[in-house]
C-alpha cells in the first residue's frame, strides 16, 4: 500500500510560510509545453509561481492544475507531481478560487484539522 505524504494546501500568500515543506498548490497555467521542465502559473490569489520539475512534462497542459511538491524561496515550487483536469470541460473555467482561498485560510489557523483526541 502506498504511504500518503502529508502536505499543506496553500495559495500564493501562504506559500511563503512553507519554504522547504511539502505543499499542494492550484495554479492557472496559460500553457506549459510538452517536454518542458519549468513553467509558471498564477495561484488562486493571483501570485505568479515558477514550477521546476524533476522530469519533463508529458504532454502540454493549460488551465487549472494542482502541483504537489516542495515550496522554495521567491514563489517557486519543486514539483514532484502534477494533476491536470483535461476532460473536465467547464469545471476548469469555473474553479472556485474564493472557496479555495478560504480553505487555505482555514487550514492555516487550524493546526490539526483532523485531530480526534487521544485514541484508546
Protein architecture, described:
By secondary structure, the chain is an alpha/beta fold. Helices cover 18% and strands 39% of the residues. It is built from 3 helices and 6 strands, in the order βαβββββαα. It has a 5-stranded mixed beta barrel. Strand 1, helix 1 and strand 2 form a beta-alpha-beta unit. The radius of gyration is 15 Å and the shape is globular. The relative contact order is 0.20. The mean pLDDT is 87.
Number of strands: 6
Order of helices and strands: EHEEEEEHH
Describe the sheet with the most strands.
5 strands, mixed, barrel
* Gross morphology: globular
Ends distance:
25 Å
The proportion of residues forming helix, as a percent range, comes to 10-25%
How would you classify the helix and strand content by structural class?
alpha/beta
Query: Count the helices. How many?
Result: 3
* Widest beta sheet: strand line-up: 2-3-4-6-5
> What portion of the residues fall into strands of 2 or more residues?
35-45%
Overall mean confidence score, pLDDT: 87
Poorly predicted runs are none
What is the C-alpha radius of gyration, as a whole number of Å?
A: 15 Å
